[in-house]
Design brief:
With 233 residues, the chain is an alpha/beta fold. The chain is built from 6 helices and 11 strands.
Length: 233
């Protein structure tokens, strides 16, 4: 029997269990096995076939030149964990999917920055704190993300306060909502590097969102097979 690829999923130490459970289920139903990673439970990427940088608390503003809001909950240990994992994963070519804050962390790791509060930039952005797919987004027709989802317009959920501002190097913005907020990015010339601002793990009945997980698992299998062929650990 073929081994299920191991997909590491970063989560918060406090809270975030629903995100983890839904991610674990989506990974399993598409052929992989999820492994929860927290600042208290670190793993080496040598034991992973793919990486999901998951949703959760806001990113510490000092990492992108933002302003600290004392009312916002932060997790600097998790921020550092994810930066370390992303750098190691990119060095090895490990497939990466960023979800919500994970998409933002990919951008920060690549030298980009964030809007600390989208309402201060885009004004009234409507209802953005719901796991229900109520937000309409447009996806670039020539993007790899559009090819995976098989749509150029769809409805997604939203649970974020921060958003991508200046883009990091080697990345392309491939989706916006109708207010202009960046909703997805992908790596240029990289096998599998995507960041989505929404939470596909909660859209378990949406075939396109589940294909995103399926493609991650497929990329993870290819990554491991190539390393085996090269005699790498």
């Amino acid at each position: 029997m073929t081994r299920r690829p191991i997909i590491g999923v970063t989560t918060s130490r406090r809270g975030g269990r629903f995100m983890w459970w839904f991610n674990r289920f989506s990974i399993w139903r598409n052929g992989g096995r999820g492994l929860r990673i927290t600042a208290d439970k670190r793993v080496s990427i040598e034991g992973l076939d793919g990486l999901i940088v998951g949703g959760g608390d806001d990113i510490v503003p000092s990492l992108y030149g933002g302003t600290l809001d004392p009312a916002v909950r932060l997790d600097p240990e998790r921020d550092q964990l994810e930066l370390d994992l992303l750098r190691a994963a990119e060095d090895s070519g490990l497939p990466i999917l960023g979800i919500c804050r994970g998409a933002q962390m990919i951008n920060v790791a690549r030298g980009g920055n964030l809007h600390g509060d989208i309402k201060l930039v885009y004004g009234d952005t409507g209802r953005r704190r719901t796991p229900l797919p109520l937000l309409t987004i447009d996806i670039a027709p020539d993007s790899r993300l559009a090819a995976i989802l098989r749509v150029t317009r769809c409805r997604v959920n939203a649970l974020h306060r921060q958003a991508i501002d200046r883009l990091g190097h080697g990345l392309a913005i491939v989706a916006h909502d109708q207010k202009g907020v960046v909703q997805a990015l992908e790596g240029r010339g990289q096998a599998f590097l995507f960041g989505v601002q929404w939470h596909p793990e909660f859209l378990i009945f949406n075939p396109g969102q589940q294909r995103l997980y399926r493609r991650l698992i497929r990329a993870a299998r290819s990554y491991t097979a190539e390393r085996v062929n090269l005699g790498l650990p």
